[in-house]
TrEMBL record:
It is an enzyme of class 5 (isomerase). It catalyses: (2S,6S)-2,6-diaminopimelate = meso-2,6-diaminopimelate. Belongs to the diaminopimelate epimerase family. NCBIfam families: DapF. GO terms for molecular function: diaminopimelate epimerase activity. The gene is dapF. Its main location: cytoplasm. Its EC number is 5.1.1.7. The lineage of its organism: Bacteria, Bacillati, Actinomycetota, Actinomycetes, Bifidobacteriales. Substrate binds at residues 15, 82, 92-93, 176, 220, 244-245, 254-255. This is Diaminopimelate epimerase.
Length: 306
């Protein structure tokens, strides 16, 4: 097998991963190995796999991209794969778990130290270790998620098999593709005026949502309830659920949280959002050029293969 004898289990607000370090480039996993490791009954279990390695050891990176990472001072790369074995461009929760794992392995500084520059297929992400933050967790990181782009508002139809009704979704590119649908608005600002799909809590997201028109890249689909908006404070709160391409519903999705905040900013003009997911609570700040995501990470165990 091309996986090491020992792997670790970690999660970022419930979005869970199998994690291992591969500094010498010996353990690039196959699709079958990823599916085995992430199987929740026959393997370790996870929404995906994180291999921490150097850019030069990632086979799908060409020489130009490797050189660009090295020129940018990036020593470590997050080789992220979905639970079905497919490559993924980016995972916001995965970057925090990777940064915490790098701290544990001695590759990155702890709270108060130098920010950790991590290579991903969506470019360089810079993570700042904050330590314990009240309301967020014990191992909190703020990550500069970089640039975003947003399509025209509510141009995608979104349905969920087994549910009546529909919603209108907005496309957001966070280095990976998202379609965000606001189903409920308890703030009274009318942000869900096109939705007839029901409540966010009532959805069965074990079934893959259907997005029309179809995106060739597939997409993550987010379903959102706005809970409050404070315009003077430039702050809103919301709740989100997500079905991720390649693994189904997850308890959290970092890029999905960012895509949600980008969409809510488009609809409301509010820059700062506290967003709850089934795995915890995170904070997102959006401006015209980038998004910052702040949330917790945990390494919960070490597993030795028999």
């Amino acid at each position: 097998m091309s996986i090491p004898q020992t792997v670790y289990k970690g999660h970022g607000t419930g979005n869970d991963f199998v994690v291992y370090a591969d500094p010498d480039g010996e353990y690039e996993p196959t699709g079958d190995e990823i599916r085995f490791l992430d199987d929740r009954h026959f393997g370790v279990g996870g929404d995906g796999l994180l291999r921490l390695t150097h850019p030069r050891h990632v086979s799908d990176l060409d020489a130009g991209r490797v050189a660009a990472f090295e020129a940018a001072g990036v020593d470590w790369f997050m080789d992220y794969r979905n639970a079905d074995g497919s490559l993924a461009e980016m995972c916001g929760n995965g970057t925090r778990v990777t940064a915490l794992f790098a701290q544990i392995m001695g590759y990155a500084a702890g709270p108060g130290g130098e920010p950790f520059r991590l290579g991903t297929r969506a470019g360089v992400k810079t993570l700042t270790s904050l330590g314990a933050v009240e309301g967020l967790g014990r191992n909190v990181f703020r990550i500069d998620m970089g640039a975003w782009s947003c399509g025209a508002t509510r141009t995608f139809g979104v349905t969920v098999p087994g549910h009546e009704g529909s919603a209108r979704g907005t496309f957001v590119d966070m280095g990976n593709p998202h379609v965000v649908a606001v189903l409920e608005d308890l703030s009274g600002n009318g942000l869900a005026d096109d939705a007839s799909l029901g409540t966010v809590d009532g959805l069965d997201l074990s079934a893959k949502p259907v997005v029309d028109p179809v995106l060739e890249s597939d997409q993550n689909a987010e379903f959102v309830r706005v809970e409050s908006i404070e315009r003077i404070a430039d702050h809103g709160t919301a709740f989100m659920r997500v079905n991720e391409r390649g693994c189904g519903e997850t308890l959290s999705c970092g890029t999905g949280l960012c895509a949600t905040a980008v969409t809510l900013r488009r609809l409301s003009g509010i820059d700062d959002w506290t967003i709850a997911v089934r795995g915890g609570t995170l904070m997102v700040h959006v401006d015209d050029g980038s998004v910052e995501l702040t949330g917790d990470a945990a390494i919960v165990g070490r597993v030795a293969r028999l």
